[in-house]
TrEMBL record:
Belongs to the group II decarboxylase family. GO terms for molecular function: aromatic-L-amino-acid decarboxylase activity; pyridoxal phosphate binding; transaminase activity. Its cofactor is pyridoxal 5'-phosphate. SUPFAM superfamilies: PLP-dependent transferases (SSF53383). It comes from the Bacteria. The modification N6-(pyridoxal phosphate)lysine is found at K282. Keywords: Aminotransferase, Lyase, Pyridoxal phosphate, Transferase. This is Aspartate aminotransferase family protein. GO terms for cellular component: cytoplasm. PROSITE patterns: DDC_GAD_HDC_YDC. GO terms for biological process: amino acid metabolic process; carboxylic acid metabolic process. The keyword Iron does not apply.
Amino acid sequence: MHRVDQGTEQMIRSVLAYAENRLRMNPVPLDRGELSADEMHGRLAGVIGDRPRPPDEVLGVYTSVIAPSVISADSPRFLGFIPAAPTKAALLFDMLVSCASIQGISWLEASGAIAAENSVLRLIADEAGLPGSAGGCFVSGGSAGNLSALAVARETAKRRGATGRLRVVVGTDAHSSIVNTLRLLEMDALIVETPDHRLTAETIRAAVPESEADIAAVVCTSGTTNAGIVDDLAGVGALAKERGWWFHVDGAYGGSGMFARSLRAKYDGIEQADSFILDPHKWMFTPFDCCALLYRDPQLARATHTQDASYLDVIHTGDGEWNPSDYAYHLTRRARGLPLWFSLAVYGVDAYREAIEVAAQLARDTAELINAAPQLELIREPDLGVVLFRRIGWSAGDYDRWAQQLHSDEVAFIPPTKWEGETVGRFAFLHPDTSLELVREVLRRTE
Ligand SMILES: *Cc1c(COP(=O)(O)O)cnc(C)c1O
């Protein structure tokens, strides 16, 4: 299994040929799962057995059964949920990180990888305006980032004397992972109703009097997953400071928007964050799975997350050394920030600013098309890359049929969403190659 024999040589050629072919595709096919669960299990049954199998045969199962049943989130036609659009450089380097088993656990084991990852975290922290002492690590995704950050918020509140069950102020449009995190951490969500879906200092002041105790933190979203709305970071950050709350900013989807000049002002106040997350696997064009997690004061994170074991003592020695394992709930980790490091270096930060801008501009252009179409209504001017719209007279079933037809025709993947209880259409733009022409075709089908 570890020797490079003739069979291995052939396998290297086959797998790399497949990978090369995929890397050269521009665009990738949208794909969709056509097999039922039973058919799928049937096709995969017995592939793993006690005896060996020719690699090309198993690769054939992958290419004929598995790959086409995975919708390509990195297709420019993928306009649902939050799309992906990894750069070619990031994809290539992700392969290298795997091939070389590059881990990023401790400075002792992986100083080079960690220093490179930290230079990317530094870039993000600088863009946000966080102090030079800020730092953190890359984790698998926004959910893991939110959990790790809010664990620090809770432990910090306790260390400052809080006892009993703690609460966290969140807006109604906070991501589902926040609610999940609070449940796991045994904290309660103090949900503030936001009349226009944007959490502001004013709404919090009205809903949460100063006398309310046991509040550990407040969470802002920049921006919301469903509609791309950036909360009032400046106001809420100042209020958090005034009340002594931890200020967490969930920028898993939209945090990267601050790199686009036309959007930067929406992020004013982010520099006050005690913790901040951003998913490069969303709007910063890396492969899955990658979330940047930053703390204003990393010392507080270490006090929460450092694992203590006699065989780990050796990694906790020198000054100036940085152990990513100390800043989140994890120990072993791949150096998942390296593909972004490579890609940023290869293309330059300006190319990122421009590519992020493209999606924001497409959202604004799409809003105009919707405003001009008599059968459509724009629900809200887009803040970032998400556009919500209503087709006058349509029921939930109409949206579903429209979306399914678009998918089966391989035109676009654009599942509807809900807005204030009503089913509506939703574009999520992220891929720089998604065209206004495609948008026109999708909208034409609502006529
Ligand atoms: C996607 C998202 C998350 C969760 O991130 P994962 O990487 O999917 O775990 C959290 N918050 C927001 C705002 C998101 O958009």
